[in-house]
């Protein structure tokens, strides 16, 4: 009887707990982020505080990431994967993120930064649909170091030292146009 009551108490405790933010799929340890048709931001967007000077993660883009924009010139727009704000400022003042787009039959990956309000980007290469790909960003003095496919790329940074008061930036579609279809990206923090 004692074991039964103890089991019931534990079960009720776990049933009353809700998951905050994006839920893991539990079939693996990736979190699936979905950007719904007509939206820019992921469902349940929770840009939490970021207190580190680096981030490492893996991502998987599925076939939903093959898309065609309504206006052909917007196919060059860079969608955002993940990163962080920096220098105790809003992300459109100072930040580092990976970006991506589907262009010329390839999923292209970019270093995407704001430095003192000025946006800069650099194409880093391509990845395959369904492939687990590793990413990393770290601050190094007045530089960001982006690691993609085992290669490091330095980009300028406005401040030096820690990130200050910063927040994590989650997947975002656009550019000018919202998602033309549901977009799904799986991410595992390392």
Walk me through the structure.
7% of the residues lie in helices and 43% in strands. The chain is mainly beta and 190 residues long. It has a single domain (22-189), classed as Jelly Rolls, CATH 2.60.120.200. The strands form 2 sheets. The protein has a 6-stranded antiparallel beta sheet, with no helix packed on it. Residues 4-26 have low confidence and may be disordered. It is built from 1 helix and 12 strands; from the N terminus they run αββββββββββββ.
Task: Provide keyphrases for this structure.
43% strand, 1 helix, mainly beta, Jelly Rolls
Q: How far apart are the termini?
A: 43 Å
| CATH hierarchy: architecture | Sandwich
Number of domains: 1
How much is the radius of gyration in Å?
19 Å
Main sheet overview: 6 strands, antiparallel
């Amino acid at each position: 009887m004692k074991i039964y009551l103890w089991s019931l108490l534990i079960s009720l405790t776990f049933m009353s707990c809700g998951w905050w933010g994006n839920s893991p799929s539990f079939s693996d340890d990736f979190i699936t982020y979905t950007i719904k048709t007509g939206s820019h931001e992921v469902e349940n967007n929770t840009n939490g505080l970021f207190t580190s000077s680096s981030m490492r993660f893996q991502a998987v883009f599925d076939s939903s990431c093959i898309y065609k924009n309504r206006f052909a010139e917007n196919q060059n727009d860079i969608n955002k994967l993940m990163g962080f704000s920096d220098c105790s400022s809003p992300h459109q003042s100072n930040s580092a993120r990976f970006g991506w787009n589907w262009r010329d039959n390839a999923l292209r990956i970019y270093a995407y930064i704001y430095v003192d309000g000025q946006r800069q980007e650099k194409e880093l290469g391509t990845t395959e649909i369904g492939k687990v790909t590793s990413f990393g960003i770290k601050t190094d003095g007045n530089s960001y170091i982006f690691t993609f496919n085992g290669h490091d790329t330095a980009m300028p940074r406005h401040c030096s030292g820690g990130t200050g008061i910063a927040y994590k930036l989650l997947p975002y579609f656009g550019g000018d146009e919202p998602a033309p279809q549901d977009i799904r990206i799986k991410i595992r923090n390392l």
